[in-house]
């Protein structure tokens, strides 16, 4: 936890100097790594004014794509912690995340991570959405638009060690758009990196959860189509692992 404070202090100093250099980018990247499925570190980030620094960095460095990717990757980790999500549910933060859905920074990465943050928030249901603006349904519409704009064959600057945070968004009817984001994420990863992610999805019980997506009346037709494709990809991989490994698999980035 002392490391979280140290990194935030470095970021604060760089902001005062109005400098976005390798130290700044490394600091956010390091925070992304040490908050991965580590709720205590996520809490420490929020306690130590992390969200204020995030907003200041966005404003001060609007064109720094790698910085934006690292910051949104970190916030994706924070949003996975149910007890911390209420702190993200403010008009200011929701507006920022919604606007970042349209970001083209680092390919789809910033838009994808912004949509992931919002997907976890939407999963908590309409009753927690106490603000008048922005409206929950308007934000969900923007999420649908963003997901439909992404190229499903995109190579990724991201590395999942576990699908558990994504899988929990599948068998539910509270937020069909969150379910769609999760299904899109799985389809992209098992299509582009089959030898890495098909075994992980199978091992973590993802196929049976995708079957539940097909059974739910609330699941949208395009979500069901994508769920079937994920299941087919895993089935093909099991039958012939070499056949589906279409190209060299390289991961440049990190996920938390």
Question: What's the quick description here?
Answer:
Keywords: Ubl conjugation pathway. This protein is an all-alpha fold and 256 residues long. It contains 14 helices and no strands.
What fraction of residues sit in β-strands? under 5%
Number of helical runs?
14
Distance between the termini: 15 Å
Regarding quaternary structure, how should these chains be classified?
A: single chain
How many strands?
Answer: 0
SS-derived structural category: mainly alpha
Assign a percent range to the helix content.
55-70%
Low-confidence region ranges: 244-256
Which sequence of SSEs, written as H and E, runs from N to C? HHHHHHHHHHHHHH
From the alpha carbons, calculate the radius of gyration and give it in angstroms: 18 Å
**Tell me, what's the shape?**
globular
* Largest sheet, strands/sense/barrel: none
The averaged pLDDT comes out at 92
Biased composition (Polar residues): 243-256
Organism: Xenotaenia resolanae
Domain Protein zer-1 homolog-like C-terminal: 1-235
Family: Belongs to the zyg-11 family.
Q: Can you tag this structure with a few keywords?
A:
Protein zer-1, disordered C terminus, mainly alpha, ZER1-like_C, single chain, 256 residues
Please specify the SSE layout and strand pairing.
Elements: H1 2-16, H2 22-34, H3 39-47, H4 50-60, H5 65-79, H6 91-100, H7 109-123, H8 136-149, H9 164-167, H10 176-192, H11 194-203, H12 206-215, H13 221-239, H14 241-244
């Amino acid at each position: 936890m002392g490391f979280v404070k140290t990194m935030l202090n470095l970021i604060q100093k760089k902001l005062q100097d109005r400098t976005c250099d390798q130290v700044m980018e490394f600091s956010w990247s390091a925070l992304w790594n040490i908050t991965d499925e580590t709720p205590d570190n996520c809490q420490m980030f929020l306690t130590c004014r992390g969200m204020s620094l995030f907003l200041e960095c966005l404003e001060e460095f609007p064109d720094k794509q790698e910085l934006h990717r690292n910051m949104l990757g970190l916030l994706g980790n924070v949003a996975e912690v149910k007890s911390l999500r209420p702190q993200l549910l403010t008009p200011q933060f929701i507006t920022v995340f919604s606007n970042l859905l349209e970001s083209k920074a680092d390919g789809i990465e910033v838009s994808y991570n912004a949509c992931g943050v919002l997907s976890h928030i939407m999963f908590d249901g309409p009753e927690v959405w106490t603000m008048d603006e922005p409206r929950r349904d308007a934000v969900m519409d923007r999420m649908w638009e963003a997901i439909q704009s992404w190229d499903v064959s995109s190579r990724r600057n991201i590395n999942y060690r576990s699908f558990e945070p994504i899988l929990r968004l599948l068998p539910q009817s509270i937020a069909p758009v969150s379910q769609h984001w999760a299904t899109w994420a799985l389809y992209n990863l098992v299509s582009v990196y089959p030898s890495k992610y098909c075994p992980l999805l199978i091992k973590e019980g993802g196929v049976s959860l995708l079957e539940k997506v097909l059974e739910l009346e609330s699941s949208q037709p395009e979500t069901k189509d994508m769920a079937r494709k994920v299941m087919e990809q895993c089935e093909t991989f099991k039958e012939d692992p070499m056949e589906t490994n279409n190209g060299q698999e390289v991961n440049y980035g990190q996920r938390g």
